[in-house]
Amino acid sequence: MDVTASENIPLHDLQRRVILLVGGDDACVKDMLARGGFTQLYSVTDAAAAPHHLVNVDVIVLYASDPSAYQLCRTVHGNEAWRRIPIILLSTCAGDHDDVMHAAYAAGATDILFRPIEAAQLIPRVTSALLLKIERDLNQRRERELQDELATHRVLEARLQYLAAHDELTGLYNRRRLEQLLELAVIGVHHHQHHSALLYLDLDQFKIVNDTEGHRAGDRLLVSVADYLKRRTDDLGALARISSDDFALLVENIAEEKALEIGEMLRAAVDAFYFESGKKSYHIRASIGVAMITPQEDSTAAEILAHADQACYAAKTQGRNRVQMFRPSDKAVRSVQSDVYWAPLIRDALEHQKFRLVFQPVLDIAMGKITHYEALIRMVDEDGQLLSPAVFISVAERMGLIQEIDFWVVGSAIDWLHELPRHHAHLAVNINLSAQALQNPSLTALVKDRLRTTGVRPERITFEITETAAIANFTQTRKMVNDLRALGCRFALDDFGAGFNSYSYLKHLPVDYLKIDGTFITHLVHDPVDQTLVKSMIEIAHTLGKKTVAEFVEDAPTLDLLKQYGVDYAQGYYLGKPQLGLVEN
Ligand code: C2E
Ligand code: MG
Ligand code: MG
Q: pLDDT tens digits for 256-297?
């Protein structure tokens, strides 16, 4: 039932509503109403006693014989539970009507009738008051439903934020959160001119337990080690699980020898840890790498994490169950990761056409057809191997080379569409944009120009942006999105749910698609929390008129479940891996 529907309420329903007559003792009004077909008529003589009789009342017909009548109006109006009950005041006054009306409305009356009261007036006024009550009830119910809905979303959002920062299995911080804390620690080191340390801990026996005892035992081991480490490090720093059996501890304001001591303490603690599974007992050990964060160095959070990881790897190769400090002079390991190593390679790749695009199909579930391809970049290395963007995109971002890459990708992806055979003229391409590209006003000009020279329709281009890229400069991003959408291009919010404020960004960015982050999809079939979150994301996206895409669809049961939930598009290895060019089927 909606507000306008209240006009269609049958008369007999209105006639069964409860009318309370207050004050006055003449039976005349009651008779009129009874003859008008109203059946639930109750009366109270004393206006002061009326509040005791207000439960379930739909309309009050009130004789304004003395000031207590006005007091009753004020009481009803001032009370949250009664405020919705309309009051029709019957004025006994023979004086100035304007004054009486003014006083009555000021006190909270809904309507007023003057003597002589006639059925022809009274019945329609009571009917309107009843309709008003029904509308007010409806509005209140809707408001409550809305509040409930908002509360549910707030709970989900809080859960999302928690998940965004915590590892679900162990409750420790996750990698994303650790990286943020590391970034803050780097700033802190420069600001306070102190040293901090990152310890990287890898369990040596995890794989054995996991392989021989199964995943459940593996999970149990991780949870117990996490608890065990947490108890020993609570007052030292922030502990995170950053991948399956890798933990990291960030300790701020600490000297190198102390950091090594903590590493040694953790190593010894894990060495004393035995994991029981059935009749077997496993002796657990750890390799630990330590990277110092110092004001003399300009390493980024990602580099520090890589340094600690390399030191940990060195500890492993030197016989495990040991602590190893990262030394910048260990060039052999370092050069593989550094900007100095990658930057010239990226420049060379740009200059000598060593970038390639691979294309991954996106399935329109309702049509059962591939309608889009996501363009993903690769770099050809000296052996002709295709390198993943994971190894060069972040360097390119730091070295200011990403815009050039993005522009190359945009141009090449549009050219790819243009060169497709005619029977593929319906296909669309998804292009990933970095934060920097979004800040560069010449992107719009480039897109416009390429669309014009190739004749490719703008609806065939969907740009993918992430929340992190969008918040880098929200106003500028929104302008860019609006400009490109005005050309006819579409937008998708990528990796949705992985960030902190996904829902609020969704509301404020005019995107057409929402790509649910793959981490919510990979375990979907077995994880009830993921199921709830994914359902809610789909529901919210649809409420906002946006289509949903699920990435990382790796098997048929996942696709079936997503279909049930009403996801619009699916992408993932199950439907097709990224390939150079288009595979004809
Ligand atoms: P993304 O945009 O979220 O792309 C999806 C990534 O998931 C791709 O990794 C894809 O190969 C991978 N993937 C697809 N299906 C599955 C699956 O079923 N399971 C799993 N585990 N993974 C799957 P890729 O190509 O390594 O790209 C990684 C990220 O690098 C992209 O994430 C995107 O953020 C960025 N990237 C890729 N190409 C470009 C580009 O041309 N420009 C910019 N600025 N960024 C790019
Ligand atoms: Mg993408
Ligand atoms: Mg994605």
A: 999 999 999 999 999 999 998 888 888 899 999 999 999 988
Residues 499-512 as b or e (16 or more Cβ within 10 Å = b):
bbebbebbeebebe
Rounded distance from Cα 577 to ligand 2 centre (Å): 14
The alpha carbon of 446 and the centre of ligand 3 are apart by a number of angstroms equal to: 24
Q: 515 C-alpha vs ligand 2 centroid, how far in Å?
A: 8
Q: What is the dihedral of CA 303, 178, 495, 377, to 10 degrees?
A: 10
Q: How many CA atoms lie within 13 A of 215 on its CB side?
A: 2
Ligand nearest to the CA of 516: 3
CA distance 351 to 484: 28
**Contact residues for 369 (Cβ-Cβ < 8 A; gap 6+):** 363
Ligand 1 neighbourhood includes 495 CB (under 6 angstroms): yes
| For ligand 1, mutation pick of 412, 432, 461, 463 (most atoms within 8 Å of CB) | 432
Pick the atom of ligand 1 nearest to 433's CA: 44
Helix H, strand E, coil C: the string for 457-506 is CHHHEEEEEEHHHHHCCHHHHHHHHHHHHHHCCEEEEEEECCCCCHHHHH
Q: Residue 208 and residue 336: Cα distance in Å, rounded?
A: 29
Does residue 504's CB lie within 6 angstroms of at least one atom of ligand 1?
no
Give the Cα separation of 537 and 546 in Å (integer). Answer: 11
Which residues in 56-90 are b (16+ Cβ under 10 Å) and which e? ebbbbbbbbbeebbbebbebbbeeeebebbbbbbb
- The reply to whether the predicted model has a pTM over 0.90 is no
Best CA proximity match to 60, nearest among 13, 24, 7: 24
Average pLDDT over residues 413-429: 94
Q: Which amino acid is at 199?
A: L
Q: Is the CB of 252 under 6 A from ligand 1?
A: no
Residue with CA closest to ligand 1 atom 4: 376
